[in-house]
Amino acid sequence: MMTFSLSRKKSKQRKKTSMHVKSDVADITVLVYQNPTYKQRVQRHWILQLCGLLCIAAGFIIIVINKIKQNKFHFTTVHGIFGLIAFILVIFSSFGGLTTLYSSKLKNILSPVYIKLLHTGFGISAYIAGVLNMIIILYSGWLKNDFEKYFLN
To answer: 50-91: per-residue pLDDT in tens?
Structure first.
């Protein structure tokens, strides 16, 4: 059983909102600041992006293993090709994020502005490719033929 409670406390420095999520297994407290510092925003961004990257990589690996087990061809559909492109762009964006995180140490090699610009460009491209891939699956043969068989019975 989970219970949620919200409490607001005012301080002279900043207004804080805390959400307490209590369960039998764990007691997790998440503090959400209305005006987080730049360092906090960057940390939250890379933690969420790392979680997303791990989920994408796990899904990608599961699909490739499934194709190998069924002796099917890889990346033969538009959805599969866009998925591969999106996955590669996510990898580039993640690498760019890592270099952006340490851009001050890499400034002798490449300007931090260019590093951040590349990270942003790959990130936006990966997002667009991922959204297009989700739209493409709506018009695929799998959704029209197999969705009902697997999920509605």
So the answer is: 999 999 999 999 999 999 999 999 899 888 999 999 999 999
* Chain position carrying tokens 């591969």: 84
Distance CA 2, CA 49 (A): 27
Sheet with 3-10: strands ordered across: 3-10, 15-22, 27-33
Identify whether the C-beta of residue 58 lies closer than 8 Å to the C-beta of residue 50.
no
Q: How far apart are the first and last CA of the chain?
A: 30
Place of tokens 């270099």: 99
* CA-wise closest residue to 27 among 2, 52, 61: 2
d(CA 131, CA 147): 20
Q: What is the pLDDT of residues 7-27, one digit of tens each?
A: 444 444 444 433 333 333 333
Dihedral pair phi/psi, residue 126, rounded to 5°: -65, -40
Six-digit token string for 100: 């952006």
- Who contacts 9 (Cβ-Cβ below 8 Å, separation ≥6)? 15, 16, 18
